[in-house]
Amino acid sequence: MLQACTFTNSRESDSSPTQALLEAQSATLENQAQTLAMLSDNQQALLTELRVTQAQIRELQTGSTPVASEPETVGEVKPVAELLAQTEPGRKIRTNSNAKLLLGRVEWVWLDILSAHLKARIDTGVANASLVVATVQQFERNGESWVRFTLHDQAEPVEAPLKKNARRNRVALMVRMGSLAEYVEFALEQESEAPTYTVTLGRDFLQDIALVDVSRKFTQPKVELTLDQN
């Protein structure tokens, strides 16, 4: 019986170092797993910062219009009747020449030739303005090139003289937005389906006159043509 007891105690004594070794290895593996998790989190944070930096670089390279952090005070909007005087192409009219317009990514514009309000996409990523049309046809009038076009939601055709020496169908149309009235040169883009936005205004329109806050929409009131009938 003494021999049996001695044998049992010997086996228990031999297993103690093995158990301790397993526990040590388990603790080491757990520490390594925690370290890998921390490295993964750090890598993800670095990737996020890299994407943000790349987006900022692309914005600078495209010459985007500065984004306004706070609304800028806009001059009082005068009745549009004061703006309906004959305006020469290229001339800009504003009620306050020292204040820039604050625009969102989408604004209401009034096109004189259509006598209608349209939603315009304000896009600092494109250079020129465009107008999506359903049909377009060139013709000659008094020795000059003209164009007749229709919009998807307007069956009545409108006519305008083409810009001279233009490679594409380009027309200068009077645009009114808030306190601004300006002739804008549009490229007529014919598409088979109605677009989300018929009008796109690019950097040629925005330069020196507006700040863009892409987080906002419809910052400028609709132009109301309340003309005296007398």
TrEMBL record:
Alphabetized InterPro entries for the sequence: Asp_endopeptidase, Peptidase_aspartic_dom_sf
Any single biological process term in GO: proteolysis
Superkingdom of the organism of origin: Bacteria
Hydrolase found in the keyword field: yes
Pfam family, one: Zn_protease
Gene Ontology molecular-function annotations: peptidase activity
Retropepsin-like aspartic endopeptidase domain sequence ranges: 103-222
Keywords in alphabetical order: Hydrolase, Protease
Protein's name according to its UniProt entry: Conserved hypothetic protein, probable Zn-dependent protease
